[in-house]
Design a protein that fits this description.
By secondary structure, this protein is of the alpha+beta class. It has two domains: 67 residues, Helix Hairpins (Orthogonal Bundle), CATH 1.10.287; 92 residues, Chitinase A, domain 3 (Roll), CATH 3.10.50.30. Helices cover 47% and strands 20% of the residues. The protein is built from four helices and five strands; from the N terminus they run ααβββαββα. A five-stranded mixed sheet has the order 3-2-1-5-4. Strand 4 and strand 5 form a beta hairpin. Helix 1 runs antiparallel to helix 2. The longest helix has 30 residues. It is elongated. It starts with a helix and ends with a helix. The C terminus is likely disordered.
């Protein structure tokens, strides 16, 4: 799991746990002290927030568990997968587009960061250079031909070469 995603999720979990353990009980107690609970909007809002925070905490903890199970050695070296950068030719738009396959937490379509769970991401995952992915979108089908592929393993190798080059004072 990318370290910044782990930190982001842990930060949100910590904030929600604090709210659940400290802030919401105080709000509920304060609202309950106002009297009749059947018509007490503050009490009902605090209880709804408590339910929401509990549900969100459950989601975040499940997501952390899912991400911790990601084993980089299981990601293919010759096909698109998590962490890959893919250059595609979109026949519909007659243009080349660069996508990077990321987690749903990192996705930002404007920056070319596509979640592996999005329609485009799901269509590209498992493809090799030369393959065509047919993506069904609300605007119709799109044909994306894989022109170039750099996997997470290729990028890790590039980083290793760069760090070796800087350590020896040479460039690759």
């Amino acid at each position: 799991m990318p370290e910044h995603i782990k930190k982001q999720l842990l930060k949100e979990i910590k904030a929600l746990e604090h709210e659940l353990a400290h802030e919401l009980p105080a709000e509920i107690k304060k609202a309950a002290a106002m009297g009749d609970l059947s018509e007490n909007a503050e009490y009902h809002m605090a209880r709804q927030r408590q339910d929401f925070v509990n549900a969100r905490l459950g989601q975040l903890k499940r997501r952390m568990a899912e991400l911790s199970l990601v084993n980089l050695s299981n990601i293919p070296r010759d096909k698109a997968g998590f962490g890959s950068t893919v250059v595609v030719y979109d026949a519909t738009k007659d243009e080349e587009i660069v996508y990077r396959l990321v987690t749903s937490e990192e996705s930002d379509v404007a920056k070319g960061l596509i979640s592996t769970t999005s329609p485009i991401g799901r269509g590209i995952v498992g493809k090799r250079v030369g393959d065509v992915a047919t993506i069904v979108t609300p605007n119709g089908k799109r044909e994306l031909e894989i022109l170039k592929l750099t996997t997470i393993h290729d990028e890790a190798g590039d980083e290793d070469e760069d760090s070796e080059a800087s350590a020896t004072g040479t460039e690759s």
